[in-house]
Fold this protein.
Amino acid sequence: MTDQPLQVDVVSDVMCPWCYIGKRRLEKAVEMADVALDLRWRPFQLDPTLPAEGKPREAYLAEKFGSPERAGELYANIKAAGEAEDIPFAFDRIQVSPNTLDAHRLIRWAANAGPDVQGRAVEALFRAYFVEGRNIGDPSVLTAVAEGAGMDAALVAELLVGDADRDLVRQEVELAQQMGVTGVPTFIIANRYAVIGAQAPRQLAQAFQLAAAQESVNDNAPAE
């Protein structure tokens, strides 16, 4: 095996319930695989057309699914899948469907704030939205999440007011689309392989092991 951690780019959106489920399954896969991983959270927006202030949840569901009742039927399976992963989805608490651009800016900044900070920020954003029903497009909510994850809350608040990294996040989303990512979560392994969807932990673990073995072969191959 290569001595370098295996890079895994997790393309996701924090308003995607399957991405939250995928994160839980990823955590189990990491334990199963026994492979050193360098996890990096990458942005995707399921609905970049949402206004900056978001949209009332009922109106959004009516537009997307026809009615809140129909949405409730569709979310029943998601809620069951969440329970299996110890995620107590509380869709009824959500009042606003957010534009997640600023949340992705926060995740980007978290990558440079110290070990494991990005993972904590992602977890906190998922929990704030899906369990607590908070508006993760609200700067005050994002600042509180940043502080809880171990970031400099004052700096984050200052950055959120401006346009820092807005274009970079949009470019990353566009790059993911150009690479063929049409649904999330998508796990891009070593910039070579992709696993699409919230797959079972065993499947993810096997993908990591196979990729690590292949990378080791590539590293040890004689130069031409």
In short: The chain has one domain: 6-216. Strands lie at 6-12, 37-43, 55-56, 96-97, 186-189, 193-196. The chain has a mean pLDDT of 95. The first helix runs from residue 17 to 33.
